[in-house]
Design goal:
It comes from Methanospirillum purgamenti. With 281 residues, the protein is an alpha+beta fold. The protein contains three helices and 15 strands.
Length: 281
C-alpha cells in the first residue's frame, strides 16, 4: 500500500506537561481563531502562525489556550470574539480554503488549534453539575473541581472507502456536495462495530451493494470538527446500486476516462481517487 501523506496531521505538536515555563517570547507562537475561521496576515504567502512579539497591538482576544511544543517553540491558540474587528492587515478564512496559500505544516497546526479551541468551548462547564471546569496540568483534559468529572477531546472515527470493479470505481454524490462533486463512500463508526464492519454497513446502506477484500489505505485526522478518517480499498462483491436518497442522491461506476468532478486536494477522498488513477491501488 502507498505511504501515508495526510494533510492535517503532518506537523504534530507535542503537548508537553507540565507546560514549560522557561520559553522566551521570541519562541512563542499564536494561532488566532474567530468563530471557526483562522486569522492570517495577507502577504505573499498567508501567515497563519504569528510570533508573540509581533502580535498586533489592536488585537482583542480571550485567554490563550496552550497547544504544545514543536522543537524549541511553544504554541497557543487564542479566540478572537466574533464581535471584534479584525486587526489591521489581517483576514480570515477556513482552514480548507487556505490550501495552496499557506504552508501545509502551518495548516496542520491551525487545524489542530481549531479542534482544541472547540474542545475548550464545549467543555468550559461540567456537563454533570454545571461547574466551571479547569484544565489539567498533566494531560489534555478538562476536569470539574466539584464532582471530579474529567473530559478529553472527542475523536469520532469514520471510514472512507474506494470500491473497485475491474477498471471502474464507484463514486457517489451527496445532496450536500459542493458543486455537485462525486466522491467515495464514507460514514461514521457505530458503537459495537469494528472498522471493517462499518465499511460493509455504510456501503450497503448508502448504495445497496456488497464488498469484500478490504485493504487499509491510510488515515487522516479530519478537523471538521473532530473526525479521524480511516481509509480503505475494497472490491465489489455483488448487488445492484440502489441509493438511499438521503445520504446519497446519485451513484455509478466510472472509468479513468469518464470521471465526474471529484473533491479538491487536501482530502483523503481525493488521495484515494488519485491513487487509483495512477494505479497505486
Amino acid at each position: 500500500m502507498i505511504s501515508s501523506r495526510p494533510f492535517y496531521g503532518i506537523s504534530p505538536l507535542f503537548p508537553v506537561y507540565p507546560k514549560p515555563e522557561d520559553i522566551s517570547p521570541a519562541q512563542k507562537y499564536w494561532i488566532l481563531i474567530q468563530g471557526t475561521q483562522v486569522l492570517f496576515r495577507n502577504q505573499l504567502e498567508s501567515k497563519i502562525i504569528i510570533l508573540q512579539n509581533s502580535l498586533p497591538t489592536d488585537l482583542v482576544c480571550n485567554d490563550p489556550v496552550y497547544l504544545g511544543i514543536k522543537g524549541n517553540c511553544m504554541y497557543h491558540v487564542c479566540e478572537v470574539p466574533v464581535s471584534a474587528r479584525l486587526p489591521e492587515g489581517f483576514e480570515s478564512s477556513s482552514v480548507r480554503e487556505l490550501y495552496g496559500k499557506a504552508q501545509e505544516s502551518d495548516m496542520a497546526i491551525a487545524s489542530y488549534a481549531v479542534r482544541i479551541l472547540e474542545f475548550h468551548r464545549l467543555h468550559a462547564f461540567c456537563g454533570r453539575c454545571g461547574t466551571k471546569t479547569l484544565p489539567l496540568t498533566t494531560e489534555r483534559a478538562q476536569t470539574c473541581p466539584v464532582c471530579n468529572t474529567t473530559v478529553y477531546p472527542r475523536i469520532s472515527p469514520a471510514i472512507i472507502v474506494i470500491i473497485k470493479k475491474g477498471e471502474e470505481i464507484l463514486l457517489a454524490r451527496s445532496p450536500r456536495s459542493p458543486s455537485g462533486f462525486y466522491s467515495v463512500i464514507a460514514g461514521f463508526n457505530e458503537p459495537g462495530e469494528n472498522l471493517e464492519q462499518t465499511v460493509h454497513r455504510e456501503v450497503k446502506e448508502e448504495v445497496g451493494i456488497s464488498v469484500h477484500n478490504l485493504r487499509y489505505f491510510w488515515s487522516e485526522p479530519w478537523p471538521f470538527p473532530d473526525s479521524l478518517m480511516v481509509g480503505f480499498v475494497a472490491d465489489y462483491a455483488g448487488g445492484e446500486i440502489q441509493v438511499d436518497n438521503q445520504e446519497i442522491e446519485d451513484a455509478g461506476w466510472f472509468t479513468r476516462e469518464n470521471l465526474p468532478p471529484y473533491p479538491s486536494k487536501a482530502s483523503i477522498s481525493r488521495e484515494l481517487i488519485e491513487a487509483w488513477i495512477s494505479r497505486e491501488i
